[in-house]
Amino acid sequence: MLLFFTFHFSLFTSAETGRTVNIWEGMDVSMNVEMTPYLVPGMENKAVVVCPGGSYFWHDMETEGHMVARWLQENGISAFVLRYRTAYVPAFITRFRFLFRGNRYPDPQDDLRQALTYVRKHAKEYGVDAHWVGAMGFSAGGHLVMSAAEWFRPQERPDFVVPVYPVVTMTKDCVHKRSRRALLGENKVKDARLRDSLSLEQHVPADCPPVFLVNCKDDPVVDYRNSVLLDSALQARHIPHVYLQYQTGGHGFGASDTKGTPESRQWKQAFLAWLKELK
Predict the structure, then answer these.
(1) Cα(15)–Cα(8) distance, rounded to whole angstroms?
(2) Measured between alpha carbons, how far is 217 from 249 in angstroms, rounded to an integer?
(3) β-strand partners of 11
């Protein structure tokens, strides 16, 4: 029995082959933003920075973070789970950001930019291809990764983007108000210019990287029309992309084998096939 448990424990711990790092370590900033690598043995593997959702207030670190990374790793893709800065629960409860800045835009975007830079800088150490570093995000994390595709300089952008049931608009009536409040802050939430600038459907660049977009029509949290808006914008700009809209599955299923529905869980195999064919 001891040998049995020792063997299985070693299999479990070997899944996390990289040391959790502070992406800002050594930079001229004083902050700690953690990223956990899940590495695939070998060289020049494709890599994905994973951004869990949580309305820009918190993170679903398991279903939309570490579980996603383990699934990617099992399928030959190195993954890096990013605990980017959010407003956090005290800001949700107290609204103290009327008086103090707290965390807000562009903090999450700055963290993702630095995470992508960090992975590329350490590509040889991690055994990944610096030219194949994508970003996958869920819900508010989907907004985050898509914003990287739109706003970052070309050399800083992810090489491909996977927004899953993403928050998209900050202006339309289908807006996810909690995410908007978290990202903009209480004293900026009615700023029309800022709302417009953070609405992804309005700012797709002509050189946007390829996009794999997924959501469900019965999503009770983020109105499914968010993804419809993004799909339409991508089509209008002739951006290579796939849009999978499932009828059932709801929200928050991440890479789970039990959450969502059998229909919505098909996204994982569809993504793997898409990435394999991506040139």
Answers:
(1) 11
(2) 8
(3) none
